[in-house]
Amino acid sequence: MTSQQPSKNHYNRKSTAEEVTTGLDLTGKTALVTGCNSGIGFETMRVLAMRGAEVIGTARSLDTARDACAKVKGRVRPVACELTDLDSVARCADEVVASAPSLDMLICNAGVMMLPKLEQVRGIEKQFFTNHVGHFLLVNRLLDRVKVAPQGRIVLLSSEGHRFAPKEGIQFDNLSGQKGYGALKAYGQSKLANILMAVGLTERLKGTAVTANALHPGVIKTNLTRHVSSILMSVFSVVAIGQTKSIPQGAATTCVVASDPALARVSGCYFSDCNPKTPSAHARNAALAERLWTTSEELVKSYL
Prior knowledge:
The chain has one domain: 3-Layer(aba) Sandwich (Rossmann fold), CATH 3.40.50. Helix content is 39%, strand content 13%. The protein has helices at 17-20, 39-50, 62-69, 86-99, 126-147, 183-204, 230-239, 247-250, 252-259, 286-300, and strands at 30-34, 54-59, 76-80, 105-108, 120-121, 124-125, 153-157, 211-216, 270-272, 275-276. Strands 3-2-1-4-7-8-9-10 form an eight-stranded mixed beta sheet, sandwiched between helices. The protein is globular, with a radius of gyration of 18 Å.
């Protein structure tokens, strides 16, 4: 695969997931969506299944995933995947490998946002671990299944919040958060890591038909914002006035990146409002992406 620069399409921030997939027949394709139980993840699963794809929906518990899948028409099946538990991630991957000959779409949607106080998983700040490390392991354990698809796609949900990352981008000497924790800065760092992972994957996927891209779904009130203070939400509402989205609009960019035939050779890019967008300078730093990849491998080495 030689990556092409994406061209602008006719969709925009008001487009919905159903609208951007109109006319697509995804019969015979298999997708995996993390965080399928609510918000953008649920809508993504619902619309991809509506278009004919078989969707593996993951949530933190099997019961939660089952409840979500029961509300969707089409071929869907639940799998447990608790991203803060590497054993759970590994079991999820093993189950998918055993049951799915190939994966056409691997959509890393689940995440946490703006935890009010420092929490850690295996000594790592929880937002970074959940949003990046758990997905890093899942993707790497499923990469062979994506590679055997005719044109596999890895989709990483990031955020414009990546622009609030620390001034050095990734604080490799403070991944624990113990040298100083700020909810927004830590969230920004984790979302920057999502984009850098797409950059790192693109480098490693040269010569294959697999693409990896990141995206900002939009400003949407979902379960993700449950930890955001009412004051900060008010600030976001003022800053983003006229820019907030419904959940169907929020899932649109995910569905474009996961299924639009025009993006079959586009990799290592960042999207917003269904179209390409230039991310921060840190997010375009290949050396930073390589250092993050090496560090991430070290964090999950016993599971790879």
